[in-house]
Each structure stands twice: as structure tokens, then as C-alpha cells.
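ok, trying the design again with the full structure, not the truncated one.
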């Protein structure tokens, strides 16, 4: 009789649990401090506010022991060790009840106040940029199309089809397909890694495995941004 009652309780509890149907994600890193618990959340694609809040609620429910939860959503190609301020697609913060204000109207599905800042472009805006085909890149050997979420632009490295030197050109377009910048970088291959130097001061980028990685000469070899083609 006791076993039957225990099974009944388990069944009731199981049906009472909320099913979290959220997009796939992976928590790759947890950084705890005296003021916050910061989690790096890897997502596979650009997500809506609803999807991001759904993931946030699930993580919060699974991480009740972590205080002042802060979730940093990161797209493929990005690296959590990048130094730039725009490395993350979105940041969600769960403030303490004592610091919430009347402006804190956004809540997750469990009713918890959350502050969500989506820093990157939506899937629709990114799709528009990736589908741009201005005359400047028509007939070129395109090496990738990269969304700059900070500047809301499309970066396109390419070579001329019949150029025996394979000179690399980098051109950047805005939302309307207008050229924002155009560069012929100097190539440096002294360390076995091909660097495309894009400024007179020595800032450079690398292009490998469909990932464009950007470096400032001031950051001692640490990238400030990295972007995967086509996302």
C-alpha cells in the first residue's frame, strides 16, 4: 500500500512539473564573485526575446543556489575570452528585489523580474544583411559574410577570381547595401598565421574556418571580437 501511495505521489509531482520547451543551449562557463554569478550561455542562433526569457527561466530554476544571476548569451564563433564589450548577443540579469524599480516590468514565465538587453541584430535583420548582393561584390570570390552586431553592418572579405596573387579585399555594407568602409589589408604571415593588417597602427584580423577574428594592437594578442560566417 505504501509503495502504491509513493508511486501515486511521484506521478502527481511529475505531471505538476512545468515542462521547459526552450531552444538548445549550453552553459560553458560559470564565474562567481561577491556581487554576481555570471554564466556564459552558448546559443546556436539568433533568438527572440521570448526564447531568451525561456532559457533564462529554466537556468534560474535549475540554479536557485546562485545569487544575482547574470546570463551572457553567446553566438557561435564568439569566444568568452574576447576583450570587446559587444561579445555577447544578449545579457539577462535577475536583480535583487531590493533594487527593482517601477521600470522593471519585464518578467520571465515564472514571474521573476529580469532585465534583458538584446545587443545583437534580430534573425530577420541579420538575414536581410546576409542576402545583400551589392554590385561591389558581384562576381567576386567571397570568403564569407560576417554580421557586425556592434555596428549593424555586413563585413565581406573577398578576392578577385582571376587574381594570381589572391589579394584580399574587405568591404563593409550598411543595412541599405551602401559601402561603409573598404580596405585592402596588408598580409603578414611571419608567425605562421596569416594576419590581415587593416590599420596603419597595426590592428589586424584573421580568417580561418569561416571565423573572422579581430584584434587591436593594444590588446597583446587577445581578440576583441570574433564572428562566424552566415549567422
Amino acid at each position: 500500500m505504501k509503495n502504491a501511495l509513493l508511486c501515486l505521489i511521484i506521478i502527481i509531482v511529475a505531471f505538476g512539473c512545468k515542462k521547459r520547451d526552450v531552444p538548445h543551449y549550453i552553459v560553458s562557463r560559470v564565474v562567481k564573485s561577491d556581487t554576481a554569478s555570471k554564466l556564459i550561455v552558448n546559443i546556436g542562433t539568433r533568438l527572440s526575446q521570448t526564447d531568451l526569457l525561456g532559457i533564462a527561466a529554466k537556468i534560474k530554476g535549475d540554479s536557485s543556489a546562485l545569487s544575482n544571476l547574470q546570463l551572457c548569451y553567446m553566438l557561435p564563433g564568439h569566444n568568452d575570452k574576447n576583450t570587446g564589450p559587444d561579445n555577447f548577443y544578449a545579457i539577462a540579469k535577475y536583480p535583487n528585489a531590493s533594487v527593482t524599480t517601477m521600470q522593471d516590468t519585464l518578467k520571465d514565465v515564472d514571474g521573476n523580474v529580469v532585465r534583458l538587453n538584446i545587443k545583437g541584430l534580430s534573425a530577420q535583420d541579420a538575414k536581410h544583411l546576409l542576402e545583400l548582393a551589392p554590385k561591389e561584390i558581384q562576381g567576386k570570390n567571397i570568403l564569407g559574410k560576417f554580421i557586425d552586431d556592434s555596428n549593424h553592418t555586413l563585413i565581406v572579405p573577398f578576392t578577385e577570381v582571376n587574381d594570381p596573387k589572391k589579394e584580399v579585399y574587405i568591404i563593409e555594407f550598411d543595412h541599405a547595401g551602401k559601402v561603409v568602409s573598404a580596405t585592402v589589408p596588408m598580409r603578414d604571415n611571419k608567425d605562421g598565421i596569416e594576419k590581415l593588417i587593416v590599420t596603419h597602427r597595426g590592428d589586424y584580423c584573421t580568417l580561418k574556418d569561416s571565423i573572422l577574428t579581430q584584434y587591436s594592437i593594444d590588446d597583446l594578442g587577445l581578440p576583441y571580437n570574433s564572428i562566424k560566417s552566415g549567422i
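Keeping the full-length input from now on. The radius of gyration is 23 Å.
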